[in-house]
Please model this.
Amino acid sequence: MLQIGSTISFQKNNYKLVRLLGEGGQGIVYEVTDDNKNHLALKLLFPYAVSQETKVALSEEVTQRNSPDNRFLWPANYVEHVDQFGYVMPLREARFSSWEKLVQGRVKPVPQLDTLIFACRSVCEAFFNLHIQGLVYKDLNLGGPALDTKTGEVVICDCDNVRIDNDPNGERLYFPEFAAPEVILEETTCTRYSDYHSLAVLLFYTLVRHHPYQGALWEDINLVNDTSERAFYATKPKFIFGSDHKNTLPKDTNPARNWDRLPVFMRKLFYKTFVDGAHNPKERTTDGTWVKALIKFQDNIVRCSHCKTLFCAENTDICDTCGNKLRRHCEISFDERKVLLTEGMVFQVDKHFLGNKGLGLVVNHPRKRNEIGLKNISKSSWKAYLPDKTVKNIAPTASIILMTGMTISIEGNHYKILTIN
Model:
């Protein structure tokens, strides 16, 4: 371990060690400052834990590329010090919590469902941008992504193993729980298809809070070793919600409850990856498909007017927390999307507060409980086009009663009221 306060110099760059951030199997990470007093993270790898291929890739490839997405804490400058080598990257802000703590239920505040979906979508978007540049992450696991539990913003760490897709000379680096069967079986190197598997495992852990292949049979193992991992994750993987799920379900009932809360289209995508795609990589759900599905999932999240819990109304109009029926709600259409809104919900372009200011607040009529309206909470006036061709102006702070067939024009965008129930 290096002395805190000391300085590392390499190729005219100087980094002063501020504090130790953490240590893992591959190396040690420090907070440092550069010559311009910028606070960064320095990761020095243990020479016995990484290969010469990693050193060459870091110095000649990874650090020479621009980050494919700003959510990756991308290796910026290559560094050597005595017998160690590594890289400098952006410092992860303190507001971000590790994904491992998230799935273990050790984060505060606990993210609401829409925030969690937004975070999942953000990871998928980042991987989509990585893959379209012909790159693969290789070893995605719970230690890579981190999220702000209030906003759903995401950063992705540990990008030092990013390589060219399907590189025949690339190392097979992976965590068994997240690795695709063909990688564990050494049938192929890491590809975007193996990344698709790892990404689906991460999403499954996040939304279901369990591993897709760790069912009842896994729980009966006395000793987990390479042989058992190879069987459960590679040669004979059994999806816990597959066709014979009665024999594969874990003893804990929470995963089944979380699974039932997912919309049907999300369950089908998991099935496609963990059953159809287990040994047929091209059948796996792609990152772009996950993005579209998570947007649809998010658009179907509503707030129960009784207990104020968020839940998905794609499958049912009954709150899965308190059992009460969903009260008055409307469906708004725009850009080929359909968004559900209930009393007290804020309508936004992305139906999430991150980077989008609220446009309208769904309110109940003060006297007629069977009518709902939309209050203008933006700074500009709207125009509402009623079914009878009447046009009304809605100034900021004003409200309008919603009706089926109405179109509202907000800042040049048109939003049509499809249904009111």
